[in-house]
Amino acid sequence: MASNDPTMSGAVTRRDFVKYSAGTVAYMYLTTLNIGCSSSTVQVIQWPISNTVYTTAEHQILPVPVAAGAPLIAPKELARYSQYNYSSWNVGPGLPCTVWETIAVKAPNAALLLSFFTITDVHITDKESPAQPLYFEWSQAAGSTTMNSSAYSPVILASTHLLDAAVQTINAVHRTSPFDFGIALGDACNNTQYNELRWYIDVLDGKVITPSSGDHVGAGFIDYQKPYQAAGLDKSIPWYQVLGNHDQFWMGSCYESPLLRAAHISNSILTTDNSAANCQSIGQPGFYSGVIDGSDPLGPVILSGPEQNYPVPPSVVADPDRRSLSTSLSSSQNWIREFFITTSTPVGHGFNLVDPAMARDFACYSFVPKANMPIKVIVLDDTCKGTGQPNYAGGSLDQIRLDWLKQELQAGQDNNQLMIIAAHIPFRVYKDLVTDPAQVVTNPQIMTLFLPMPVYSVVNDDALLSVLQGYPNLIMWIAGHRHMNTVTPQIHPTDPTRSFWEVETSSLRDFPQQFRTFRIYRNTNNTVSIIITNVDPAVSTASPATTSRGNAIATARITAHVPMGDATSHSINAELVVQLTPTMQAVIANAGTPV
Q1: Intra-chain end-to-end CA distance of the chain, in Å
Q2: CA distances to 168, 181, 232, 535 from 172, in Å
Q3: Quick check: 110 and 170 in contact, CB under 8 A?
Q4: ∠ CA 240-245-251 to the nearest 5 degrees?
Q5: Which residues contact residue 48 at a Cβ distance below 8 angstroms, ignoring those fewer than 6 apart?
Q6: What's the CA gap between 288 and 296, in Å, rounded?
């Protein structure tokens, strides 16, 4: 059985399916839930995390290397994931905090100004929905060069469970090092479905989760299908939300057409020509895309493959809760409205702060997270808008959002506030993970993510950087989207006060399945330090979240996103130093809690 308990020795492998006993869960109770066509009395359980919680500064989850010469395996060979260490991991020593003085030279920390956490790219998935392209990845041969885990990965079996484990871990960290707030950086949903978003919000609210749909097969005896009581985020932590591309668009890639909107709530399995599972292939004859078999502990894809293999078209039990949140008029309005149906704070989770006078699909707002602290968070929706975009996974700002961003930055500058931008899509970032600040001088490759201007976006990556560097009080841009922990300094060539940091947080879906903490300090000189730390959810041995961790590692190996011999955590713990203007140095001179 897998564990993140550092007292356990030996490699951890994929967990075998186990039945429940009083020793594997906190407690069980009976309740009446609407499952399938009628109300049923079912067993509801809890999935507690490990007793001790560690950040990666104390202990890291380290993949066990796959031995040289081990055979390649295909995505659908689920029973082989535990062989040759594909899904194995160990608990290793902590990852030190490295000081990055690329922008400024640090001095001792004097006072804590702000503490918060980020989660992102949770990709809550209705694995039994007939409107997803599972077959494209599921059918790949071992060693295929076209593998892409976004189409299918067995991590989708336990997406809600992993979020619940992360929430419990956040609560445990909060009890020893309190957070002022938390923010989720987009892609809460995998496929813009109503039930996916409700599971996401309800996990954070601490409600009973029924993590299955349609006929709820396996809900009475398969671990990842059983209803459970989510712990819920500590009610003293306000949390805010950013809009992502998967939250609005089919698989994050296509504006929802009438065909796709109908497919979500249909009993018919979606068909594709299997050319690349792209927008043009959807609905074309050729292959049934399949669903997960929730009655199997391994969760294989079924009802998939060439149409000629099925004399009778395969079907599933339709479910109205699978409905798309996107409409022909708006990709995000229905999605945003759900955040007002919540028991945690603030109601609306930031979208209550959106200016109602702005255009449809406007999802930008700003807030001051801590009273009497001159720090402002600007939440920027930098996803595509409208139909006809060339790439719905690209970054984009229209003139309305760019003008709003400039106004917010100028207001923060005029009000002597340090500023943080929170967006889903990063821009002009290091292409690969750079863990050593000394590598900065070697000019690593830069990846651009914004769409071509002026047709699709009014700024590209370089133009956006020029805008942002006009505001010296901007200290950081935080983002998700790429499922990486990359840190990129955005350096102004002549004025260090106009330089800032870009910090990406990895996904809770894919390896390394982490969230990130931020602690901002005033230093004894004219700088501030941003201390960033990755945290692995403290999964317990019995939880489906533990299996998900092994599946994530195996998927990263199979798709070659992590080399076979790689045994690193893909984390970055760092102290990022920022240069202040003399004005801001004076403003925060006495701010914060002394250390």
Answers
A1: 41
A2: 6, 14, 12, 11
A3: no
A4: 125
A5: 25, 26, 168, 540, 543
A6: 20
| Contact call for residues 225 and 160 (beta carbons, < 8 A) | no
What's the whole-number mean pLDDT along residues 208-222?
97
How far, in Å, CA of 541 to CA of 8, rounded? 11
In 3D, which of 55, 97, 95, 59 has the Cα closest to residue 529?
Answer: 97
Residue 34 reports pLDDT greater than 80: no
- Beta-ladder partners of 119: 184
Interatomic CA distance for residues 179 and 421, integer angstroms: 18
How far lies 8's CA from each of 2, 63, 153, 202, in Å?
A: 9, 15, 28, 33
Of the candidates 531, 571, 513, which has an alpha carbon nearest to the alpha carbon of residue 161? 513
Q: Put the strands of the sheet holding 365-367 in their side by side order.
A: 365-367, 375-380, 418-423, 474-479, 500-504, 487-490
Closest CA to 378 of 456, 467, 460, 459: 467
Nearest one of 496, 513, 502, 519 to 555, comparing CA atoms: 513
CA distance 435 to 249: 33
Q: Dig out the tokens for 332 from the structure.
A: 């995000």
How much is the pLDDT for 133? Answer: 92
- From residue 390, give the alpha-carbon distance in Å to each of 91, 317, 363, 464, 546: 43, 34, 21, 20, 38
The Cα–Cα gap between 191 and 134 comes to 12
Half-sphere exposure of 6 (CA within 13 A, CB side): 14
For residue 224, give both structure tokens: 């990842």
Can you list the alpha helix ranges (DSSP code H) found in 322-384? 333-337
- Under 8 Å between Cβ of 406 and 420: no
CB atoms within 10 A of CB 387: 11
Backbone angles phi, psi at 422, to 5 degrees: -115, 120
CA within 13 Å, CB half, 442: 8
Mean pLDDT across the chain: 91
Of the listed ranges 12-21, 276-285, 371-380, the one predicted with least confidence: 12-21
Cβ(75)–Cβ(290) under 8 Å?
no
Structure confidence by residue, pLDDT tens digits, 51-110: 999 999 999 999 999 999 999 999 999 999 999 999 999 999 999 999 999 999 999 999
Interval 451-467 mean pLDDT: 96
Residue range 554-577, pLDDT digits in tens? 999 999 989 999 999 999 999 999
Backbone angles phi, psi at 549, to 5 degrees: -60, -45
Q: Rounded to whole angstroms, how far apart are CA atoms 368 and 478?
A: 16
Instruction: Give the total residue count for the chain.
Output: 595
Tokens of residue 223, six digits: 């671990």
Contact 211, 227 (CB under 8 A): yes
275: confidence class by pLDDT, cuts 50, 70, 90: low
